[in-house]
Amino acid sequence: MQKYRVGIVGAGGMVGQEMIRMLEKSSIPVSELRLLATERSAGRRVTFRGEEWTIEPTNPERFSGLDLAFFSAGRGPSRELAPEAVKRGVLVIDNSSAWRMDPGVPLVVPEVNGEVLTGKEKLIANPNCSTIQMVLVLKPLHDAARIKRVVVTTFQAVSGSGYQAVMELEDQVRAYVEGREMEKKFYPHRIAFNVLPHIDKFDETGYTAEEWKMVRETQKIMGDENIKVTATTVRVPVFRGHSETINIETEKKLTPGEAREILARSPGVVVVDDPSQDLYPMPIIAAGREETFVGRIREDFTLPNGLNLWVVADNLLKGAAGNAVQIAEYLVERGLL
Predict the structure, then answer these.
(1) Among residues 244, 221, 18, 28, which one has the least CA distance to residue 110?
(2) Are 317 and 288 in contact (CB under 8 A)?
(3) Is position 129 annotated as part of the catalytic site?
(4) How crowded is residue 212: how many other Cβ atoms within 10 Å of its Cβ?
């Protein structure tokens, strides 16, 4: 069996650490692991499949000889370093927003559009965390009844902003309990016991970059620019797990029961929908799980063909590291890597 030499750029970050864990659990045979990060993380040792590997400073020359590299270092480093890896014959799976809307770069959720991969790609983009969990639920419903319009509001955990945001929420909660003033450093306003309708930068339309990602990425992944999408993205004081309320309008009527049956058969999706027993998806259920959970499936009575859904997933797993590793597994299993 062929074994692969694999690199992880951004190995010291939250998503990078999850990539290491997900890769360890995966079916991908690895002969060498190169862990690359900033000078701050360099020198840390990581155990992977019984061997110890050391995180090194990121250097383009360290891409030489690799078969595959996962990037989780942010947009700027990806724009700079991904071409360096590709130039050295490495297949890059990038978790940043740097390449997602490039028409020459596939944007992939394996369960939704894995068939776009041919094995000829040298750069593959991993979608936005909130987009991934949404399209996993939308695609099977779109195939059954053709979605015309989507209205989505997200409730996104602080881990989506990285380690500093997680520490800020922890510090503010601790300060509240101890009766101290809650300091804010990372977010523009206090996040503890608050919600911020503000993720990424606002533009002249009043929308944020995060909201436009959900619009454009959904259309690209679903392969249908006619699907109308509007989004409001909100940061909430939850450590791990993004939640979304999604309203869809379809061409063909789907009853809630039909939607449940379709989604129950869909790969990567788990239906948790029995409100009479207080059963519905929550971040505390999704945390640490690779599936996307859907519930509160009900009719929108203001439309002839409308449904409301509630969708939750672990933003660091299926929303980031897990999907990236799944892309690589998809390629390996089909002999495309």
Answers:
(1) 221
(2) yes
(3) yes
(4) 17
List the alpha helices (DSSP H) in the chain. Answer: 14-25, 75-87, 110-113, 129-145, 163-177, 209-222, 256-264, 283-286, 322-333
Residue tagged 């559009």 (tokens): 113
> Which of 129, 142, 189, 198 does the annotation list as catalytic?
129
Tell me: the pLDDT tens digits for 98-119?
Answer: 999 999 999 999 999 999 999 9
Sequential DSSP letters for 298-330: EE-TTSTTEEEEEEEE-TTIIIIIHHHHHHHHH
What one-letter code names the amino acid at 28? I
Instruction: Specify whether 242 is catalytic.
Output: yes
Contact indicator for 222, 134 with CB cutoff of 8 Å: no
15-63 pLDDT tens trace: 999 999 999 999 999 999 999 998 888 888 999 999 999 999 999 999 9
The pTM assigned to this predicted structure is: 0.95
Distance CA 322, CA 300 (A): 32
Angle formed at CA 274 by CA 272 and CA 280, multiple of 5 degrees:
45
